[in-house]
Amino acid sequence: MSRGKWLALLCLVPFAVFFIVFQIAPLVWVLIHSVQSEESGWGLANFIKIFNSKFYLQAIQHSLEISFWSSLFGIVIAVLGSYSLRKVDSRLRNFVNAFANMTSNFSGVPLAFAFIILLGFNGSITIMLKQAGIIQDFNLYSKTGLIILYTYFQIPLGVLLLYPAFDALREDWRESASLLGANSWQFWRHIGLPVLTPALLGTFVILLANALGAYATVYALTTGNFNVLPIRIAAMVSGDISLDPNMASALAVILVGLMTLVTLVHQWLLKRSYHVAR
To answer: CA 60 to CA 227: how far, in whole Å?
Structure first.
């Protein structure tokens, strides 16, 4: 092996150590403790308890529903926004990109506080909509409210991820399709969407994982009173009443399993999209 390759491997050592210490080691710790129980010792007692409990199943259901719908709404809006950015002036495009980059990091307590001011029970927008007769009652702290909140921080991330994907669409393709008699719908159905499908699927999976693991925002908004997986895991690690790190580990394994399943489905759909595109 040449000296350059040895030097390259040496430079990778700090990253490998960092990855093992902060990624692999915690995952192994969680896996080991997920099959431990203070009552029955080693076994699957924690998982049996989870899947026999309506409370834990509700947390899984809420997490999946909020993540799916917020990712779906987020990616639809992000697609429209990313495509529109291609058609506007470069100065406005650069401003929107910079704004999306900034707002993609706007989450946690500041985001929850902003939504309480705007859409809380006495929020400014809520009051205006009630006075206009558009809505009668709106609860930001419900599942619908959380979907709206999650969608907000999904949109900037979706725009940042999808905007470069539109570089793959060449303008001469549209012109050629138009000369051959294809309308806009036919162009997007047979050319645009197949080309963008890998980027759309990849972005959707990232948004889904982003929503599944979100904790600070929902905790700050509901003070831990809404039943989702990250809240349940945190309550069992740091709670004074329901302290059970082993059960928290089992829930964390389920969360990791859901993300792994989503990734595998994404890879399968990606292979099918490539096959259809060919």
So the answer is: 9
Domain ranges of the chain: 53-277
The Cα–Cα gap between 103 and 154 comes to 10
- Cα gap 211→104, rounded to integer Å: 13
- pLDDT at 239 > cutoff 70: no
Count CB neighbours of 173 within 10 A: 14
Q: Is residue 43 scored above 70 in pLDDT?
A: yes
Q: What is the pLDDT of residue 75?
A: 92
Considering just the CA atoms, what is the radius of gyration of the chain in Å?
Answer: 23
> Which token pair is 49?
């308890």
Task: List pLDDT tens digits, range 46-86.
Answer: 888 888 889 889 999 999 999 999 999 999 998 888 888 87
CATH T-level topology, domain 53-277: MetI-like fold (1.10.3720)
Q: What is the 3-state composition of the chain as percent helix, strand, coil, each rounded to the nearest 5?
A: 80, 0, 20
**pTM: predicted TM-score of the whole model, two decimal places:** 0.82
